[in-house]
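SEQUENCE-TO-STRUCTURE ENTRY
===========================
What this section holds: a protein sequence and its matching fold, both as plain text.
Question of interest: how does this chain fold, as expressed in backbone structure tokens?
***
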Amino acid sequence: MAKLTFDTSDFEIKSMALVEKVERASEEGMENAVKELMNDALTVSPMCPQETGAMAASHSVFVDGKLVKVSTVIPSGGVATPRTSSIFKVSKNIEGALVVNKPYAASQHEGVRKGRRYANYTLIQSGPKWIESKLVRFGKKYFSMIAKRVKTP
């Protein structure tokens, strides 16, 4: 009887190291992508309404439940309230989130107020869907940022 054995221990060690490296790179890529999303939401039309700048100053970026950046906009009025603690549960997936911590952010983003269309944006470049429109318009760019980081050693 012939018996063949194959020692896979070195392969297993190196493959685990590779998985950890890819996970770290994916998190870094996600961080870069969501930071870019925040920048686009604040600077590319339609951008976040900025009558006083308080809402623009209240944007926060989270990756896997950890705060990685807050908006650097200085409000001319109102109070900046960027969220500094996560409300998200950590899952097996790598998740990025752009959070606008103002109670009126959702209605401003959707362009409605008390059930009616809201069109009273003070800056011509600002308007509804300032985040969603960037995901549609630049989604490939954000995914490419993640992929590029994973591919880069």
Notes: The mean pLDDT is 85.
